[in-house]
Amino acid sequence: MQSNNNIYERIHTALSWKRIIAFNVILFLITVIPISMRLAQEDTENRSSAAENTTPIVIPPPSYPTKPPVIERVTEWFGKKGDTVIVLGKNFGDYQWASKVYIGNVEAGPTNIIHWSNNVLEVQIPEQARTGKVWIVVNNHQSTWEGSLLLTDVARSAQIMLNRINETNGSISLRNANGVKRGMLEIAHISEPLTATSKLGSVTSISSVVDSFGKKTRIEFLLDNPLGSNTTEILQIGYPGIGAIEILRTELYSGAGGLIPVYADPFGVKIN
Questions:
Q1: How far apart are CA 146 and CA 133, in angstroms?
Q2: Are residues 215 and 188 in contact, defined by beta-carbon separation less than 8 angstroms?
Q3: What's the pTM?
């Protein structure tokens, strides 16, 4: 009996409540602390990621230019819905704020405006747009581009091309330009003078101006007879041969005065 008591006493001594508590505490620390550290780390990572993803774009309070906006050029001057056009000028404001831009007679919404700065706007042609005007309104001041944005279907539109003849001469041709009787084009150039002659009719007007982006010459022409679908040279351009010349925009009209859609291959409207 004494022997059994000794066994129970030894078990009781080995499993005293203090040792049981200490054992449980150690087990708790071993199990919980790594989990807590991992959860804390994940929380920190999540909060950091959330902070990166939700950092707002800070736009200063409105500070409009003191002078009215001026649209000087629009490139491209043709396109289809979903394409982008570049509006060049001055006094647009560093941010859009409450300003508005209209492309093809339709206001461009927030999703259509890709870039806005004081001199350059990049705008996607809205779905509701049609062949028509481009203008901007900044602080209740409006500027309208003198040209027309042409919405084109390449398969059905006339094509204009600028080709080199020699170092000081180039030619302007039209393809698939059925019914064209008269037209206008603007050419950007560095050196001057720029001259234009026609063997199929006459040059009715030629004038040059300088804007913030360089020199440009406006040429208006009238043909003796409406064009057919063949590729036809309509003008010859003379220039000193210094620097590049490039077609900035064009407008073609039928004998009845209807505007005819036209497009250009970007690589086919400039010669160096």
A1: 8
A2: yes
A3: 0.75
What is the spatial distance between Cα 101 and Cα 124, in angstroms, rounded to a whole number?
11
Domain boundaries, the chain: 2-53, 70-151, 158-271
What is the pLDDT, as a whole number, of residue 19?
A: 59
- Listed as ranges, residues in the chain with pLDDT below 70 are 1-55
Where does 70-151 sit in CATH, by number? Answer: 2.60.40.10
Q: Which amino acid is at 262?
A: V
Q: Do the Cβ atoms of 81 and 129 come closer than 8 Å? A: yes
Q: What is the pLDDT of residue 57?
A: 73
| pLDDT value of residue 155 | 87
Give the C-alpha separation, 217 to 21, whole Å: 95
Q: Which distant-in-sequence residues (6+ apart) come within 8 Å of 95 by Cβ?
A: 59, 60, 62, 116
Give pLDDT, residue 123. 98
* pLDDT tens per residue, range 135-148: 999 999 999 999 99
Same fold: 70-151 with 158-271: yes
- In CATH, the architecture of 158-271 is Sandwich (2.60)
Neighbours of 164 (CB within 10 A): 13
Supply the pLDDT for residue 242. 87
Number of CB atoms found within 10 A of residue 41's CB: 10
